[in-house]
Amino acid sequence: MRPEEQALEARFHEALRKDRSRAPEWMTRWDYQEGLKKRKRTYEDGVVSDFFTFGGAPDLLKWMSWFRTDYPDYIQDERITALVDASRVNDERITRSLGLELDKVVYDKRVGLNNAHDHLLPRSYPVPERARIRTVLDFGAGYGRQANLWTTQDPDLCYIGMDAIVNSYCLQHLYYKGLGVPFTDYIDQQGTYQFEHKGGIQHIPTWRSDLIPDGSVDLVMCVQVLPELNSRLVRHMLGEFKRVLKPGGAFYIRDHAYTWKPTDSFDVEQYLAGNGFDLEFRAHIINDVEIHGIPRIWRKVLPEVIASRTRTWKQKLEQAVVDVDTMTGGGFKRTMRKLKGSR
Question: Residue 20: which residues within 8 A CB-CB, separation 6 or more?
């Protein structure tokens, strides 16, 4: 590992040490991977197996190799093709700058396709101007792949990458820097970091989600992450997502829902439905046959929207009058007009 990568890992651990009072053990745990480690189970050759140490830039290709098969694309149009091409160009540049060689043969139908889906789906249908996406929070960001398209397709967008695992956090740092957009990392500015809403990337550890202002985020993304975490962490982060999302902001989830739940039985969707979120979109697809994982979009409730769905007392009264008049063959309104005329 290069000296600068060793220094990067050291900065992560130093930030965690200084912030330990903010970072309880359950907040910095990846339950699924820790369970595999305890059972001494590893992935195939060429895939990251130890997520709790940082192996330097070569781990980036190992993360990309986590996509072991070509994935299905139920959208299949020119928008996906264009996004896959743009994603590949960016990743070729990043890997080349790190002295790595991207496997272009398998890239498009694996990494590129996943990047394209997660960029297109949250923006694939019309929304009011108030719901336009200007700030994105990517929680459990893997090696940082979501930033590829979100930041380069919209230079004015503020992208926030968030993680608490040393291997992924350090890879995100390398990847974000390689994108060539404005980039600020909490671990580089310990004690002086201030969150700024501006175009580019803000990189923040999970335990410092408090740095993100209330009601400042348009879209939270959780892709293949929530089912692998302990329920205490998930509950905490759902509360944070609700805090940082603007009213009407979107919460995009893509995972296998409850067909694959390797940790505990906490029901994320039941929790969201009972805690101020409204399900806007759920793809009616066959999981892993038409797309890898089931995309859903929830909205943090905007009170005006809920109010617009509820009849007022005036509307209820007006409807009651119509109903009575209908039952009396118009006699109710004729009687009311006569009464008014006799005054």
Answer: none
